[in-house]
Amino acid sequence: MNMFSSCMITALVILTLPIIMSSTKLYKNKLYPYYVKTATSYAFMISMIPTMMFIYSGQETIISNWHWMTIQTMKLSMSFKLDYFSMIFVPVALFVTWSIMEFSMWYMHSDPYINRFFKYLLLFLITMMVLVTANNMFQLFIGWEGVGIMSFLLIGWWYGRTDANTAALQAVLYNRIGDVGFIMTMAWFLLNLNTWDLQQIFITTNDNFNLPLLGLLLAATGKSAQFGLHPWLPSAMEGPTPVSALLHSSTMVVAGVFLLIRFHPLMEHNQTIQTLTLCLGAITTLFTAICALTQNDIKKIVAFSTSSQLGLMMVTIGINQPYLAFLHICTHAFFKAMLFMCSGSVIHSLNDEQDIRKMGGLFKVLPFTTTSLIIGSLALTGMPFLTGFYSKDLIIESANTSNTNAWALLITLVATSLTAAYSTRIMFFALLGQPRFSPMILINENNPLLINSIKRLLIGSVFAGYIISHSITPTTIPQMTMPHYLKMTALAVTTLGFILALELNLTTQGLKFNYPSNYFKFSSLLGYYPTIMHRLTPKTSLTISQKSASMLLDSIWLENTLPKSISYFQMKSSTLISNQKGLIKLYFLSFMLTMILSLLILNYHG
Amino acid sequence: MSMVYINIFLAFILSLMGMLVYRSHLMSSLLCLEGMMLSLFVMMSVTILNNHLTLASMMPIVLLVFAACEAALGLSLLVMVSNTYGTDYVQNLNLLQC
């Protein structure tokens, strides 16, 4: 009897301890954030033990704790599935969260409600763990909704700001639309397979799994901000930077992709759903990369970058490589969280300036942040032998050598080069050149909380790809032989993106900004999608109701048709044809005179 | 013609003169209009009753109805003038816009 399940349960229980202590005096203590951070780091270290055991011996566990209820023939219980996916994801998520908590001790240290902030972050982490280790769909749904609610609470952290409230509401609404798909899938499984347990779902056969997989795809579209349900992710940057780093780059938004990866035994035999996933992911990655090119807020560029990488993960699922998508989730967490933390460091140092047109020259002033920003961007674009290379390059190679949709492949390659382009844009505007910010700021990045957290993720960004991909069990066999031009494709398009972006930036640096062209307007207004969806539909219904109820019935038929038209017509015609002067007495007198004269003169008849 | 008809006819002529000749108030013209209608009504009723023109008995009623309409119209015009100017002096009925 080894310590696998006990260590894992211990790690998960350690995470819940600060929440339990939140009703005691400890919660009002000034050291509560430190306590939370330490709890997370201990949970990480303890969860590494089962992970090492899994890597060494391939042992998987399912822990079924507590039988909740049995509804006629279906048994619902609390069960944790500790297999390949959850065992590798849990330490990665805990490591990244540990660094983010240390970072937010620096970032939010002047916030009076910092204890509540850490409690919310910890609650989010717990629900994410519940989601990842769930063995049945009900527990997964609990985690799913939990991360949605915590996302709402954390995005609207500064609730006095209208934009933050709107963004939080937007996140909840878009996630809800995805949840409809999830519930449809649960209902289908309940009706047809009589279970919500993953094991039973995978062994019962059915000829056609199209409907539940479509529901899962809709759920993933909502949660992972694929095209169609994507506007909430850039709007979610209204929350504090640690929230953006944790939720909207590493953990919550990958929940949708994780769901599809969990159901990969169902998806491997369904060609239709794979093609749908592929095309959806390809559209997402290209569209969001185009939108990222002209944004001016540094957090929004990184948010669109996250969206683009999520589209890439969907593409990977679409070419039937769920393990590669999972590897990309794990490696992406490192450098994306680090990119967000570096942008948080820049923002805080420049006294809350988020516009890259007002940054510049930070190369000499913030050396450590500059280093990590550059390394993070290089890892994101897939520089050989950094972290991103081990997942992203493998994805591009598999897509190139597989029998897949050529259009989807082409736009994925274009999006890869655009990734390099907007990364260059961030680095060029924020770091290089002469400073464009106000010189009255004291810039100091010497806080050990900041430095240590970014340093940990920096080491992770450089080495984690190597360590993870050489430690995991071999799953799907990567393509070993391919022509050299296919092998070099990812590197070539990335280099092309870098060079083009650098040239364009350097050339147009001193030029005056003309009237924006149509392509620029398309990109910077996010493809007109939020404008159309959020404004056109309510405006249409309001206009239709005004025109039909108020104007048509009331104004036209009841008011104008008979009464006002008659009076108007009479007035117009009388003013037209009357040329009298209103000398009534004269007219009357002349009439009387004429009568009298006619009576007198014409009296003689006969 | 018998005396009754001449009497009533004279009443009609008097009211007509009163309507055509007036000095300042529009109201006096409208009042004389009512007088004309009244005398016409009486003459019509006397003629019909004396000559037993039974089928024409509805005509005084019709005359009354139209007289009422026309009185209302005249009064509304008077009210409009009075709203604009405060009085109903006929010298106000000019084309001045104010």
Automatic annotation (TrEMBL), chain A:
Entry's Gene Ontology molecular function annotations: NADH dehydrogenase (ubiquinone) activity
Membrane topology: Multi-pass membrane protein
Annotated GO biological process: ATP synthesis coupled electron transport
EC number: 7.1.1.2
Key word NAD present: yes
Transmembrane segments: 6-27, 39-58, 84-105, 117-134, 140-160, 172-191, 245-263, 275-294, 362-386, 406-432, 453-472, 484-502, 586-605
Keyword terms of this UniProt record: Electron transport, Membrane, Mitochondrion, Mitochondrion inner membrane, NAD, Respiratory chain, Translocase, Transmembrane, Transmembrane helix, Transport, Ubiquinone
Residues of the NADH:quinone oxidoreductase/Mrp antiporter transmembrane domain: 134-418
GO cellular component, one term: mitochondrial inner membrane
Main location class: mitochondrion
Reactions mediated catalytically: a ubiquinone + NADH + 5 H(+)(in) = a ubiquinol + NAD(+) + 4 H(+)(out)
NADH-Ubiquinone oxidoreductase (complex I) chain 5 N-terminal domain location: 68-118
Residue span(s) of domain NADH dehydrogenase subunit 5 C-terminal: 422-601
Top-level division of the source organism's lineage: Eukaryota
Compartment annotation: Mitochondrion inner membrane
Family from the record: Belongs to the complex I subunit 5 family.
Protein's job: Core subunit of the mitochondrial membrane respiratory chain NADH dehydrogenase (Complex I) which catalyzes electron transfer from NADH through the respiratory chain, using ubiquinone as an electron acceptor. Essential for the catalytic activity and assembly of complex I.
UniProt name for this protein: NADH-ubiquinone oxidoreductase chain 5
Species of the source: Canis lupus familiaris (Dog)
Upper classification of the organism: Eukaryota, Metazoa, Chordata, Craniata, Vertebrata
